[in-house]
């Protein structure tokens, strides 16, 4: 039979016609072919497209585009651009899925609407067309991941909140939200809080630096040194201005001396052993030190007054002595 031999059925030119109405799926074949190589070969006369069926290695081999209008059931692996697929679906070859240029090995969805493009080492999820927009995902061949941004954020993981409302980034463990990055740049840790901090860090819970165990009863524990330009400690107790009250019981210097001799530290101040074992409360220590400073001022004022009284007495004695000397001189 020559290449241009055809069959005419009901006015239609047919290369091969097969028709069967069987009782079950296993004995119903419109066309059946058997060979040691391919059971059937279908070729287009001019385009070069062809389909081979029933081969020794592949059930179906297609050269050209393949279009299925209904479901396709395959029991083995499918290879697109691959002659030896290793998994259920293996796609080899295609163009690079560029950030704005389209392309890719696989497209899921309609390219003009929300869709996903994949190539050998990149994934792009687009809201519409080939340009990234809010809510999109871009993972490139260097492992850089960008979410919700139409530009490379120059970070291994970049997240952009396009509508500037709510959360830009959220981490949940089970049903609990453990981390929130808000649209204003504020960050919340360890909370389901709905009130964002004002462009800063807010921690719901304890903070431990340099030690995972922390310290019981403290909101922040640092195992190491801290340096800062300024530190404000706001105490809830009274500041030692009570030392200057009229009814304040100022201990005498004799009492202070006896306490020092007996305890080797000032009254109201922790001992060296206490500081070594328990540390100091900065706010409380500042109060105690200020109390001692204000007591010292009172002692100094007392000494000044005593010195002034002594000086007056000395001046009186000098005057009396001068008079006696004058009388002695006059009696000679």
Features:
alpha+beta, 4-stranded mixed β-sheet, 332 residues
Structural summary, described in words:
This protein has 332 residues and is an alpha+beta fold. The protein has three domains: 1-92, no CATH class; 106-209, no CATH class; 240-327, no CATH class. It contains three helices and 19 strands. The strands form six sheets. A six-stranded mixed β-sheet has the order 8-9-10-11-12-13, with no helix packed on it. Strands 14-15-16-17 form a four-stranded mixed β-sheet, with no helix packed on it. The model has no long low-confidence stretch (mean pLDDT 81).
Topology readout:
Blueprint: E1 7-9, E2 12-14, E3 40-43, E4 50-53, E5 60-63, E6 78-80, E7 89-91, E8 106-108, E9 115-118, E10 123-126, E11 137-139, E12 145-147, E13 157-159, E14 167-173, E15 176-182, E16 187-189, E17 201-203, E18 207-209, E19 220-222, H1 253-263, H2 272-278, H3 282-331
């Amino acid at each position: 039979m020559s290449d241009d031999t055809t069959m005419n059925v009901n006015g239609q030119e047919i290369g091969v016609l097969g028709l069967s109405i069987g009782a079950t799926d296993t004995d119903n074949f419109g066309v059946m072919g058997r060979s040691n190589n391919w059971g059937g070969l279908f070729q287009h006369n001019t385009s070069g497209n062809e389909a081979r069926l029933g081969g020794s290695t592949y059930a179906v081999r297609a050269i050209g585009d393949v279009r299925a209008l209904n479901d396709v059931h395959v029991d083995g692996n499918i290879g697109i651009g691959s002659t030896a697929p290793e998994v259920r679906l293996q796609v080899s070859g295609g163009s690079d899925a560029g950030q704005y240029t389209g392309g890719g090995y696989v497209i899921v969805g309609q390219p003009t609407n929300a869709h996903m493009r994949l190539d050998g080492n990149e994934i792009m999820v687009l809201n519409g067309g080939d340009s990234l927009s809010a809510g999109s995902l871009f993972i490139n061949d260097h492992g850089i991941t960008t979410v919700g941004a139409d530009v490379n954020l120059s970070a291994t993981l970049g997240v952009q909140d396009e509508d500037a409302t709510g959360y830009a980034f959220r981490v949940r463990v089970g049903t609990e939200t453990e981390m929130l990055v808000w649209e204003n740049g504020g960050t919340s840790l360890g909370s389901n809080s709905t009130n964002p901090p004002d462009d800063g860090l807010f921690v719901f819970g304890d903070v431990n630096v340099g030690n995972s165990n922390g310290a019981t009863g403290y909101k922040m524990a640092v195992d190491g040194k801290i340096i800062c330009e300024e530190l404000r400690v706001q105490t809830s107790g009274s500041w030692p201005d009570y030392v200057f009250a009229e009814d304040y019981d100022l201990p005498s210097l004799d009492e202070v001396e006896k306490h020092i001799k007996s305890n080797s530290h000032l009254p109201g101040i922790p001992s060296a052993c206490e500081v070594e074992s328990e540390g100091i409360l900065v706010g409380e220590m500042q109060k105690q030190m200020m109390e001692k400073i204000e007591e010292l001022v009172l002692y100094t004022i007392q000494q000044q007054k005593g010195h002034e009284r002594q000086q007056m007495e000395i001046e009186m004695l000098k005057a009396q002595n001068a008079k006696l000397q004058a009388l002695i001189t006059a009696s000679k």
